[in-house]
Structure prediction request, 180 residues.
Amino acid sequence: MPASPGRQRLTPAHILLIVVVSVLVLLFVVLLMERLTGDGQQSAADASPTVETQTGASTATPGEDDADAEPTYFASPSGNIVCTITADSADCGISNFQYAAEDAASCESDGAGGHLRVEPAGASMPCDPLVVVGDVPVLEYGQTAEAHGYSCLSERSGVTCRHDESGHGFSVARASYRLF
Prediction:
């Protein structure tokens, strides 16, 4: 049956374009829903987290203790937690968390509660975020990074860092954190 005057038929190329766009929109919606519900696990290959500090990015091997006090960086296998160990402190930043950050109640910045720090005097939740850019090595579950008198253990349940001499530290995971 011929097309009505004023109406054009869709060509096979138009139909293919509509199908491809529809599939891409559906894929985007599914991925967005997984991310929002927390069901989508980000793999280490998908995540290339890094930390930027005032001294710049480093790719030091976890556990490596440089004589010139270079920072050590690592990320959890999920990529949600990124940490740095310096001569002064061990700091971790968490991108996606669901806990109420009571220790950051006085902070006015967005994302407050996503940065934890331990120093010889104790553990805290600084208001400033730990900035993430670039590549850092992954610290696999069950492994410990030791540098500058600090130890950080990566586990499926999160990351725990402590100052070895004082025993002060913190643990952080998507669902909770603890300062000790």
In short: Residues 39-67 have pLDDT under 50 and may be disordered. The CA atoms of residues 68 and 172 lie 29 Å apart. The helical segments are 12-37.
